[in-house]
Amino acid sequence: MARLADYYLVVTYDLDKRVEGEGQGRILQRFPEKDWEDSPFPQGVELFCQPSGWQLYAERQPPSFFVAVLTDINSERHYCACFTFWEGLDKQQLQKASVSEVDEVDEAPAVVQSAQVFAPKSLVLVSRLDYTEVFRNCLGLIYTVHVDGLSFPLETLIGNLLTCVIPIAGGSQPGQEEGEEESLRTITLGAGDRQVIQTPIDDALPVSGSTVAQLFRQLGIINVLYLFCAALTEHKILFLSSSYQRLTDACRGLLAIMFPLKYSFTYVPILPGKLLEVLSTPTPFIIGVNSFFRSETQELLDVIIADLDGGTVTIPECVHISLLPEPLLQQTQTVLSMILDPELEIADHAFPPLSTQPSALKIQDKEIRGVFLWLFARLLKGYRMCLHLIRIHPEPVIRFHKAAFLGQRAVLTEDDFLMKVLDGMAFAGFVSERGPPYRATDLFDDLVANQGERIRQEETCPHKVMTHVKELAELLFKNENPYPAVAMHKVQRPSESSQNASEKQTPFPMLDDITVQLFIDHAAAKLTTAPPVVKAEVKGMVPSGPPLGDAVDRNGHVMANSARRLEVVRNCITYIFENKMLEAKKLMPAVLRALKGRAARICLTQELNQHVLQNRAVLDDQQFDYIVRMMNCTLQDCSHIDEHGIAAALLPLVTAFCRKLGAGITQFAYSCVQEHMVWATMQFWEAMFYSDVQNHIRALYLEGEDGEQHNNTEHQEGPAGGREISALDLASEQNRLWPTLTKEMQAERVQKEESTVFSQAIHYANRMSYLLLPLDTSKNRLLRNTGLGDVESVSNSYVTNSIAGSMAESYDTESGFEDAESSDVANSVVRFINRFVDKVCNESGVTNEHLKALHIMIPDIVQMHIETLDAVHRESKRLPPIQKPKLLRPVLLSGEELVMDAMRVHLIPDGREEATGLMGGPPLLPAEGAIFLTNYRLIFKGTPTDPLVGEEVVTRSFPIASLTKEKRISVTIPMDQFVQEGLQLRSCTFQLMKIAFDEEVASDLAEVFRKHMHKLRYPQHVQGTFAFTVGQSGKMVVEHKAKDKNQSLKTLSKNLVKSAKRTMGRQHVTKKKYSPPTWENRSSFQSEMDEDEISVSEEVDSSSLTLSSTMRSSDRQTMSNVVERACCRDYQRLGLGTLSSSLTRSKNEPFRISTVNRMYTVCRSYPGLLIVPQSIPDTTLQRICRCYRQNRFPVVCWRNSRTKAVLLRSAGLHAKGVVGFFKSPNAQASVPSQADSTSLEQEKYLQAIISSMPSYSESSGRNTLSGFTSTHMSTSDSSDKLRQPKIGALMKQVMGTKEDLPGTFSRGALGQRAKVISLSQPKVSGKARNAARGKWGSIRGSGRLSAYNPDVGTRLAAKESPQSNGGEALFLRQQKAYLYIIGDKSQLKGGKQDSFQHWEVVPIEVCDVRQVKNSFKKLMKACVPSSSTSDPNMSFLRCLEDSEWMALLHRVLQVSVLVVELLDTGSSVMVSLEDGWDVTTQVVSLVQLLSDPYYRTFDGFRLLVEKEWLSFGHRFSHRGAQTLGSQSSGFTPVFLQFLDCVHQIHLQFPMEFEFSQYYLKFLAYHYVSNRFRTFLLDSDYERIELGVLYEEKGERKGPQVCKSVWDYFDRLHKKTPIFYNYMFSPEDDEVLRPYTFVSNLKVWDFYMEETLSEGPSYDWELRGRQERVAEETADKPDSGGPKSQRHIVWPCYDSLNKAVPDAITKLLHDLQSLEAELGQPSEKWKDTWDKMKNTQRTESKLESKPSFSSSLLMSSNLSHQRRSQGVYLQESGVGSSINLNLDCEASTTSTPVPGRPSTSTLYSQFQSTESENRSFEGILYKKGALLKPWKPRWFVLDKTKHQLRYYETRQDKECKGVIELADVESVIPGTPTMGAPKNIDEKAFFDLKTTKRVYYFCAQDSLNAQLWMDSVQSCLSDA
């Protein structure tokens, strides 16, 4: 029984205390005045009566009522029902109030002045029961009695109210007599009122009225679900509403749907405004606040705000709410919407049912609660199976095994909702409340235990769920309203008149406290005398429900063919114990893979258990090794909480399996399986401990001390159907019997249980020391790997405070973190075990004496164990080590020497998945082997760790010079042992090595390795690179020897260098002072004099110094060397001037070869000989060069043989040059300034180039400026006109899109402005200088203009657009310029050129070197990722796009194609970008490659690279970061970008290149490898300085070392066709125009491919040696029976072109081997090939006589598209076996063996017998049936079969049709009909008439037709 109300109080406005203008309430009266013992009076009630603050009002407010909830210190809730009404204040009170606030100036006195003021007064009931309606009625009645002045004393009412006692719960079901008495209680306060209170049947179920339904109506389904999940996962929730009662109801509703979990955090449904700071508490809460305070809630960042009035829920960004897992969420939503909105389901029905109203609010409320009950039953089903019972007496102590629960549900990973709920306080309370096995049960227990099967069947069917929910709702409703029929009886309400009366009411009277107190005392006395009402508490055994096992297997992820896998595991274990080690070894990899699955891991533990006898199983070394490996593999996939119980099952096994090491020394398996997180997890040990304790306690009671006990258990077993009794069942039985036992028996049982727990604690202390102490205790490995430091136990313990007791000393001092000093393993283990023992012993009630004993024992246990381990460790070292794979030696190049010998490492897989076996194929990585550092390469060689592919060899290597990034990593290698340090090495040859050093490699050795690697990667000087040091054994020699064969050459090179060094700095000095010889050259004093004589100074006209006059003999010899250089050979081929020394040159040579730079004084990075216009003297060149960056002035590098347009290259202009050149001062200067004269020289220079062009001299007639005006109107020739639009479009693309150029073609006004300015220039006079001024408009006039002339693109496009708003500027000249200057947009700022000029600037955006560098880094990461990732943003294609590499290629190719177009239309082009050695070189080289077929041959390409890249000074060493000095600049692959562009062109035109793709890859690899000297150093000048430029022509030091990559190519090319492109069949002078869009470009396979079998294939000698080694090993006799001829080819392992060669290579190889067999001298492959082609050519000519369409094939102008498709097979082709355009005339790929008469005979071998008799055959066009076209077919006339057969093609075996000659009537000449082939002689047509129809034929020519007619005729006549 309980009191209905504990306290009654009257609270009023306190006029005396007003703080800062805010009123306060004070308690006027309170009954009873003494606190009840069982419920103390809650403080602060007056705050809650007016939550928004106490205020006075000017008019009376209607009475209000709400219930606030206060929580006391014992977390008991007190319900405060507040009934508030307003009373007027009289004058004295007001004056008293105003006096006290004279000094306060605020709004309060203003209120006071009004006519009448009303103050609030509250009547409050405080109760521990929640009967809102009853309280409302009682307080309402008291108010009514007072207002209406009824004649009942208020004291009586209040006395009755406070003494009213009601039952807490109805107990037994209604219907029984006493039951009615219990659950119905009628009360009266003695004012003629009567109320019926229905108490709920079961007070465990919350009473909700209709609050839940209201909550859903206010917020909607999704919002409430969000709040529900937020409350369960412990978030802060704040309700807002302007109604207080609604706040209380909403909070009550939210708590009701959380049942059976109870909310245990701050719960304040109505929070007073004064306490708002509570909202910033860090703990979770559910709080309601009046909307009045909305603004103050805005800055709360982590609070979920539910606005009840607006129906919204606001979740802040930083809050993540874990929602219910699918499909639960969806199903819950569906059922809820069926309850709340039943019409939704049938809204679309054509005939909806008549009434589908939702249930009444009260019923709906219960239905919704039913849904949530059903939901919890699903979420928590099987929870009782995971309870660990650790004590039964004196009180049951129960723990929840969270890991097992999660493991059973198989939702560990994806469901963080469940994880959070299980970790929460609410669930901890749930376990402690519902854990005990013997207690009263309720609806939820029944649902979980007995309805599980039903719930599972309903899951998918909402209607079945609905039925179930309605049943639950009925029960819930019944619980709240046992007597729905009994109505509430009468309660008086105040009359209308008294409510409205505004006249003065009497104030609420003070009550007589003595009278009330008497009532209370009287009632108390009566209670003591009355007999106690003993309500038998109905306890019972709590049913556990069905075991979860079978239910879970359905959802558990069953692995595919798991039965097979389990079989493999079982077999392997059997083999191990039967000592069949070879069999076991074969199965091992499969077993390790299978152990990824849960079923296999469980199977393993079961199988191993069978081999343990009496807790021990002694194995030999190998067995032990295998068992340990399997255990490690099993454990490595366990999570740290071990949710599947795998580690738990292995725990007894690791202490059972052992091996004998020596006399009396045994090593157990636990010493080898310690490297797993699970052993360092406190949670795991707790769960294990509790499950063991439970088993022991169960055993304790099952033994049965006496018969009666035994009978009881028998009796229990009966109904359970023989199922073994669970510990919980036992416990409930024991609890039932407990009261019947004697004191002694009780004590005995408690003591037995306690000692059981104690003994287990000792056992576990031992076990933990086994698994936590490492074998080698001297190594401090433990702390680093395991989380022993942070021992946070997360098991659901609700004994949170009891830990404080004995754990205080050990726990707080340590505070859970290791000190820095405590590196001692033993101490940390002792501490860990102490913490564990403290925790579990406290929770399971071990006595303090025992606990102290344990604390004393633990250090001894640990110490003892360390001693045994020391012995084991000592002995285990003596074991023969595990056989590690033998280290394989790499094959080295000649001259390559090891710097560091083999270091054993593991090669770890990186982000490329091909080698790991994930994409199919064998797992080649990880591999175990060694790393070797040589002076050239870094090589890993080893074997895969997976025994299935253990015979294979894995090699990965890259040149040390290509290393771009090295970083340290730490790697854990699965399976065998723990490897700490590693390195990740990335190379720009697209290779990545992740290596982990084996434990046998000392860490200092690894450091030495890194240092050596750095030293080799960045030598001090370029002479330290491999190309220079190769062949020099011992110390690297930098000094040149004094005795040198090529003495004069060396002297010259030194002089050259010095003269350049001197004169570069001092070009303005007229007379050079004599300086004594420096240390650099003591070779002879004479040379110093020479240098002075040669040095160039500005005043000397050095063009007059001819070669012969200035050079001594030794120098002349060098000049002849210079002349031999690539450039000169090419200039002579192009006819670009000769090197004659006389000045009386023939004037018709427009260009000359200038020697102005022969000493590299004008420009260091240019070659010694340069092509310049004939008319420009060398002095001018020396002046011009200053305008350009790096002195790289424009020189000619190629001339178009057809249009005679030239291609020039230079660097961009200096800023000074821009000023002098593009901006002439407007004022006429009397004396030309220096800058001015230079810009004039530049003008002259450009003009001279233009004048050299034939098209220019033709059009203008004479080379003066005055002739220009006529030319700009004349139109260009027709061929150019055809091309124009294309160029214009190209130009627009190249010059950029709208966003990067503000004024390009889009702003009409700007275009107009530009036009006006160019029109208003002064008339051009004949004076050249004025003309120069007028070329570029004054910058002042057009300062705001776009950076360059907007006319360029449109003029090229030859479009006219008169309207200015179109945005295209009107251009003034319909003709192309003679010279286009491709310039950098950023340099051309402010320039504005005149329209009468003959050159135009095309500004483009250049890709900066930094861009290339960054792009390349990203490209490497995309192609060779360092680790695999599942992030979609890191996929290969996404990374490739992010790298922008393809976009850069597109840009370079686009500019190149534009230049090609311009040159081809007859304009010259000058490429003048950046410093003239990066992008310029790329563009110029590509242009020549595209325009001139010569550069697509071997010789030509070599020449192109030597000329444009080497001679013109691309900075290979600097860009490749080859020395220490350039290390900081980083690797920038400008040359690689060029090669990639060539590769793109090669893909589009595969028949135009003599070299193959492999040739390009070879170059790409070796230009960074530093194996050859070709690509070292930055210019010819530096090469001469080191004496490497010409030494290749002299004697070589060692014949075996190739110093030039070109020599190497030549030698290899002679041996093997690897670089040759068989499809090479060039067209004469074809200009290639590749597609350049990114969509047309392909990723180069050079970036992606790798050959793990032999490493990169670009060091060809290694290949040969490896093959020899392989053959030697293969020769050994093999006893393994017959070998299969088949060989599996793995893409990332085998070299594809070797394993699967193309047909021609194969045939050539076979030929060679046949020749070798026959002992013939083997012929060079090239000769064979050429012979083949020639015979092929003649044959095809002979054969194709009779057939006509072959002439189509022969014609060499296949269109561009056709060529770009690559091999174009013409089906009806020539009479060869397969047509493949190999040459412009021949077509074949199968190379018949020479000596065969012709291919047709070769072909006939493969024909079936039917076609052996071919009397006559060839191609004829045949007209199809009506309206069908003419088609070429291969016809065969067969005399023997007497038929004319025809085939689709010559190769076709299937005959398309047969014309029986017997049916033929006649064959006569025909006439051409519609659709017949064009251009064919009329006489070539003939008709064949048969009895059925007429066939129309057409032959190649009349002769051929005649032949056919004769042949057919002869067949007919023969017949």
Please tell me about this protein's structure:
This protein is of the alpha+beta class and 1919 residues long. Helix content is 41%, strand content 13%. It has a 7-stranded antiparallel β-sheet with strand order 25-24-23-22-28-27-26, covered by helices on one side. A 7-stranded antiparallel β-sheet has the order 39-38-37-36-42-41-40, with helices on one face. The longest helix has 31 residues, at 848-878. It starts with a strand and ends with a helix. 41% of the residues are buried.
Q: pLDDT below 50 for ≥5 consecutive residues: which ranges? A: 99-112, 171-181, 549-560, 705-722, 781-823, 1034-1052, 1062-1117, 1141-1145, 1216-1235, 1260-1285, 1297-1374, 1592-1600, ...
According to DSSP, the number of beta strands is 42
Oligomer: single chain
Helix content bin: 40-55%
Share in β-strands:
5-15%
Number of helices: 67
Estimated structural class: alpha+beta
The pLDDT mean sits at 74
Major sheet: arrangement of strands: 25-24-23-22-28-27-26
Rg measurement, Å: 50 Å
